[in-house]
Amino acid sequence: MNFDFGEQEQQFVAEVKAFIAEQALSADADDVMNPNRESDSILSDTPARKRFNRAMAERGYMGMSWPKAYGGKELPGIYEYLLNEELSRVGAPLIGKGVGCVGQTLIRHGSEKLKAEFLPAILKAEIEFALGYTEPGAGSDLASLKLKAERSGEGWLLNGQKMFTTSAHFADWYWLAARTDPNAPKHKGISLFLVPMDHPGITITPIETLGEHVTNQVFIDDVWVHEDYLVGELNKGWTYICEALDYERFTFYTFSPLEEKFNALLELVNDTHRDGEPLSADSSVRRQMARLATDVETAKMLQRRVIYAASQGGVPSIEAAECKLYSTELHQRLSQAAIDFLGEQGLLHKDDVDAAAGGKWEWSYRATPLDTIGAGTSEIQKNIIARKKLNLPLEY
After folding, report:
1. Per-residue pLDDT at 396
2. What topology is assigned to 253-389 in CATH?
3. Using CA atoms, how far apart are residues 201 and 321, in angstroms rounded to an integer?
4. What is the mean pLDDT of residues 144-165?
5. What does the alpha-carbon distance between residue 118 and residue 97 come to, in Å, rounded to a whole number?
6. What count of Cα atoms within 13 Å lies in the side-chain half-sphere of residue 105?
7. The CATH number fitting domain 130-234, selected from 2.40.50.180, 2.40.110.10, 3.50.50.60, 3.30.420.10
8. 119 - beta bridge partners?
9. Reduced to 3 states, what is the DSSP secondary structure of residue 205?
10. Could you tell me where the beta strands, DSSP code E, fall in 66-201?
11. How far apart are CA 304 and CA 296, in angstroms?
12. pLDDT band at 315 (very low <50, low <70, confident <90, very high)
């Protein structure tokens, strides 16, 4: 297994770095590039970030792995991963679920009408999507969703509620999972729809999380959707959702933010003094930093295994689960270590002028739990590993 990137891939990374350096000179760069936002730094939720995505589109960075017939370049998926690595390193928005979850699913399963309507807009970064999966009673057990879609003339009438829909407050379209056959086994009666977010029957209520990340509860009341906006085949939605989540785990959980966070922690222990000595002179701090350095390298190797599995044409569900579980919990351990090293000073909020490192670590400590939930909780990742890799029984 060779984890080294080839010459062309390294040239591409250099090109992306140059693009980011150019964008860093923009007047809105502080908004576009903000790694302290943690998990929601991947979003295009402000005018500045949407402008940045349009600039990426102009450089041809959107849909690089798509077939040429749909405006792509047919490049290996590794290029999209490398792009996201460099974007996430500086806290810039990633190429997003429009290119990945939505676009890839439409290419494989969507009608010609949906492809013609949405794919060009995705390539130009003119459209944002929200994923409508989680419900009050259907989170980790997503197949238990209850939002109803009932036949009504030439379309479907939707009623129900979604919870924790990231992007709903700024998205243009809802990628919505609904139950179209209540009598079928729960994994078999689900379909996917595309619904405009400005539909009068959609009500969005923001929810601010512990880490100041905005998510939403969404109420869907008598929302009628034409049958043309059914994605793929009726009652095949669960299959499409699983495919999309595998893609999300591959591209969204990049390694570079961990590396940057560890480097920031290393700088912290070298620059912070206690009793006239840097924290790095404390043997217990040195031991903990050595362990964390080892953990970061482990996370890097787990991510490289995801890339390798995908490059061999497989679906890296086990590798992605291992990487996601380990790396997201490592983000928490790094933040916890910083809080421990700083003591009471580490508890100051970023709005406090005396906060160490601008309050970065206290904010990170609050924000990182979210990553252990999105795209499947840590418990779900453990179940995937137990079932698919260790062949353990479903019930004990």
Report:
1. 44
2. Butyryl-CoA Dehydrogenase, subunit A; domain 3 (1.20.140)
3. 36
4. 96
5. 13
6. 28
7. 2.40.110.10
8. none
9. strand
10. 129-132, 148-152, 155-162, 173-179, 190-196
11. 12
12. confident
